[in-house]
Amino acid sequence: MTTVILKPKKEESLRRFHPWVFSGAIGKIVLDATHRANMPEEGELVCVRSAENEVLGVGHWQVGSIAVRILAFGVEVLPKGFWNERIRAAYKMREAIGLVSHPFMNNTFRLVHGEGDYLPGLVVDVYADTAVVQAHSVGMHVCRMDVAKAIVDEVPQVKNVYYKSDDTLPHKAEIEGEKTGDLIKNEKLKIKNSDEFWSVENGLMFRIDWLRGQKTGFFIDQRENRALVERYAAGKDVLNMFCYTGGFSLYALRGGAKQVDSVDVSQKAIELVEVNVKKNFPHASNHRAVAADAFEYLSAQKAAGRQFDLIILDPPAFAKHRDAVRNALRGYQRINAKAIEMIRPGGILFTFSCSQAVDKEAFRLAVFSAAAQVGRKVRILHQLHQPQDHPINIYHPEGEYLKGLILYIE
Ligand code: SAH
Fold it and tell me: Does pTM top 0.85 for this prediction?
């Protein structure tokens, strides 16, 4: 097995269980006899040692600034039964917090959240009897079958495992094997594809299209925040901007909203919003779904003199990298200013950022600037974040990405 030896004093963060080894921290690489090239292969398991030869852990090698992602600390090789043990621990946590105990009410949850579940590079979302696996590292791609088998062994409700890593694996990596497709398929199950597939979140039914949908098919990370919209929606004129398949809209309708407008630039997403509203509220006549660009839609509505009592802004990550942060903050300020000026006095804004590179202080400052620009009185009612099934490993603060504010606007 290949050994990666760190430069002197570069082991401190690993001793504190931070799971990344940056390429700059590496002093020497000792390849085993199987290698033809002079570097480890992407995705291979390597043992990491300190300059004093202390074993620090075993992890996946990858080309890039994060060279190794540690899977197990203090051991030279992965222990036997490693994958089952980790998946079992992840499931146990979801059980402990009551997320899987009422499957008729909720069978939608994130089972594995990367570093937050001690499995860097891996995301697994469960939709009823199907788990959708997403690899963010070549190492996890290599191990995808081990992961899939462990999931069906350890998670009683899962019978199918679908793999969807086209957009998440590093583009430049040489990857063997398919990046999408079934890993495990139970042919006996009646529902065989995502065209007819329903999952339940807090008693609401959602069509999950993991084949063609964004990410793993759904944004589970907004579950708790959607429930808050339900609490505030009664009698209100609601705009759900960046609605995707209508998550927040269904909660607003159930909460007794007077009117709900769902807007997303994706026509496919809008078609799914219609399907979801029809399934849950077959007689609703107070919902409208519009395929439009957010900025254009808000400008047109403003020109028409329209106002709302409650607006939800849940845009895609404006900053995908650290160097894009400045532009992203400008984007957040712009969209929030547009929303704040369209809220009736005494109205509410739910505003979010899922850019990992924008921290909560920077986001709050962008929203503050938007409020000041419009010149309204604004108070913070709630500060929101990612839910319990997207845990943050305390030794890996980079795992925090979703933040939001609920504002009361006079
Ligand atoms: N709130 C959603 C998730 C939103 S994800 C939920 O609860 O499920 C972000 C969405 O923004 C995506 O659906 C994407 O299609 C949409 N989007 C991206 N750019 C947009 C734009 N310029 N105008 C409107 N929608 C946009």
Answer: yes
